Q: What sequence folds into this?
């Protein structure tokens, strides 16, 4: 014979509490998984070479408040995806996989910033007449450019382009416009070219800062970014110091 177990009010309350607690803890996870909102980090995001490539973008990563310790800088989630889709449209004017890869190819292989900005730089390097070139850039910016003449002659703005392509690829991965495999492949290709072009983070940073200056055309912003770069080169906790070139 089956015996019915008496249920006191306390027992019923306890069972209801346990059921509610289980629902509270696990239901959001199930729903989140269904909506791709569970925050995740790819199992290969900590690969040394890939992290090195990602950390080339350390100045902007700092401003974005994301990590340099794993690829993408933050766990993937629906909110992160929305954010990076917006940023890619706003800053890069790209919305598709094809546009991302085409822009990455330009940055890595054809010196986009050099094409756009060397026409402003070369007259400054070739002429000492500031009145002539002042129509292109302010005198203050011209003076800074002239101080980096050797860097610009040897590297142009490749340091800027090769750091920015890491931004583009990382953001596109976070926005699900490209796969992790695609992001990794192109990021490592750009990183290899960076190592071939430059001998150190310091050398790269000089080209980077010129690219930033000619992009922003604002000396106050430039001085802040320059100070940020100098800190990255000296701070023992900086990824540029912790991880050798």
A:
């Amino acid at each position: 014979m089956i015996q019915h177990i008496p249920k006191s009010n306390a027992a019923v309350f306890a069972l209801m509490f346990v059921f509610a607690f289980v629902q509270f803890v696990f239901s959001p996870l199930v729903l989140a998984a269904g909506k791709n909102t569970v925050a995740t980090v790819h199992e290969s995001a900590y690969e040394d070479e890939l992290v090195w490539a990602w950390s080339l973008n350390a100045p902007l990563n700092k401003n974005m408040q994301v990590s340099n310790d794993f690829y993408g800088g933050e766990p993937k989630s629906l909110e992160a995806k929305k954010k990076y889709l917006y940023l890619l449209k706003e800053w890069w004017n790209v919305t598709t996989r094809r546009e991302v890869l085409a822009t990455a190819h330009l940055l890595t292989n054809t010196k986009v910033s050099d094409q756009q900005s060397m026409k402003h730089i070369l007259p400054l390097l070739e002429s000492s007449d500031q009145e002539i070139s002042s129509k292109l850039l302010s005198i203050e910016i011209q003076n800074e450019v002239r101080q980096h003449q050797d860097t610009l002659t040897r590297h142009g703005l490749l340091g800027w382009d090769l750091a920015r392509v890491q931004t583009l690829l990382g953001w596109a991965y976070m926005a699900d416009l490209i796969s992790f495999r695609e992001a990794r492949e192109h990021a490592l290709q750009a990183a290899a070219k960076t190592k071939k072009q430059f001998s150190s983070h310091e050398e790269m940073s000089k080209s980077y800062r010129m690219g930033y200056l000619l992009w922003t055309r604002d000396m106050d912003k430039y001085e802040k970014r320059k100070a940020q770069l100098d800190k990255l080169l000296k701070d023992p906790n900086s990824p540029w110091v912790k991880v050798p070139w």
